[in-house]
Design goal:
The structure is a single chain. With about 270 residues, the protein is mainly α. The protein is built from 13 helices and no strands. The two termini are about 40 Å apart. Belongs to the binding-protein-dependent transport system permease family. InterPro entries: MetI-like (IPR000515), MetI-like_sf (IPR035906).
C-alpha cells in the first residue's frame, strides 16, 4: 500500500510539474510564432504564412530602440549601485546586533512589500520637491529603490552560513577586519551577491509601474514604450520584442552554464562549512 501511495504521489507530482511547465511555455511559444505572422493585423492562431515583417518594423521603430538603450543603462547602473549598497548594508546588519536592528532591516526591505504604484508616486513627489525634473535621474533613483531590497536580502541569506570564526582567523593572520570581509567573506557569499544582482537587473528591466511615473517624454524605458505602443497602435512588433528577449534569455543561460555553470551562479544557496 505504501509503495502504491509513492507511485501515485510521483505521478501526481509529474503531472503537476508538467502542467506548470506548459502553462509557462505555451504563451511564450505562441508569442514567438505570432511574431513571424505575415498578416498586417493580429489574426487567429496559427498564422497562415510567415514573414520577418514585424522584426523589420521593430528595428525601424526608434521609440523601441531608444527605450531599450535607456532600460540597459538604468538596469546596469541601478544593479551596480544596489549590489554595492545592499552588500554593505547586509554586512552591517549581519555583523552588528543593536536595538532597532530588525526595524532597520524592515525599512530596507519595505519597497518589496509596498505596491509599486505607491512607490512610483512617492518618488515622483519627492523628486518634484527636490527639483529633480530630468527623467533619466528620476528613473535611476526609482530603480535603485526597488532593486535594493533584493540585493540586500540575497546577500544577507548568503552571509547567514558564514562563520564569524573565519573572519577572526584572517584577522589573527594579520588582515584588517575590512580586508578579512573583502577577501574571505565576499567570495564565500558570491552566490547570494550574484543571485541578488540577477534579480535586481531583471526587475529593473521589466519594471512598468514605477517607470510610468518617473519617465518623461524624452526618456522612457522599453516596457513603457511597449505600453504606449499597445495603447496607440496594437500590433505584433510587441510579439517580435518578446521573441527576441526569449532568445536572448536562452542564450544568456547557455553562456552562463558553459562558462561558469548555473549551479555556481544560483544553485549552491547558503554557504556551509
Amino acid at each position: 500500500m505504501k509503495r502504491l501511495g509513492d507511485v501515485v504521489a510521483s505521478v501526481l507530482f509529474v503531472l503537476l510539474f508538467g502542467t506548470a511547465v506548459l502553462f509557462l511555455v505555451i504563451p511564450l511559444a505562441v508569442s514567438v510564432v505570432m511574431s513571424f505572422d505575415a498578416r498586417e493585423y493580429i489574426g487567429p492562431f496559427p498564422p497562415p504564412s510567415l514573414s520577418l515583417h514585424w522584426y523589420e518594423a521593430l528595428w525601424e521603430n526608434t521609440a523601441y530602440l531608444d527605450g531599450l538603450w535607456v532600460s540597459l543603462q538604468i538596469g546596469l547602473l541601478a544593479t551596480g549601485v544596489s549590489v554595492v549598497a545592499g552588500g554593505m548594508a547586509a554586512v552591517f546588519l549581519d555583523r552588528f546586533r543593536f536595538p532597532g536592528r530588525d526595524a532597520l532591516e524592515t525599512l530596507f526591505l519595505s519597497p518589496k512589500f509596498v505596491p509599486t504604484v505607491v512607490v512610483g508616486f512617492s518618488i515622483l513627489a519627492l523628486c518634484a520637491t527636490l527639483g529633480v525634473r530630468d527623467g533619466w535621474w528620476r528613473l535611476l533613483f526609482g530603480h535603485i529603490i526597488i532593486t535594493l531590497p533584493f540585493t540586500l536580502r540575497a546577500t544577507l541569506a548568503a552571509l547567514v552560513g558564514i562563520r564569524r570564526s573565519l573572519v577572526e582567523a584572517a584577522m589573527i593572520l594579520g588582515a584588517s577586519e575590512f580586508r578579512a570581509y573583502l577577501d574571505v567573506v565576499m567570495p564565500l557569499a558570491r552566490t547570494g551577491i550574484l543571485s541578488g544582482a540577477l534579480f535586481a537587473f531583471v526587475l529593473s528591466f521589466d519594471e512598468v509601474a514605477v517607470s510610468l511615473f518617473l519617465s518623461d517624454p524624452f526618456t522612457t524605458t522599453l516596457p513603457v514604450a511597449l505600453v504606449a505602443e499597445m495603447r496607440a497602435n496594437l500590433n505584433l512588433t510587441i510579439a517580435a520584442v518578446s521573441a527576441l528577449f526569449v532568445g536572448l534569455t536562452a542564450v544568456a543561460i547557455l553562456v552562463l552554464d558553459r562558462l561558469v555553470g548555473l549551479d555556481r551562479v544560483i544553485g549552491y544557496g547558503i554557504y556551509r562549512s
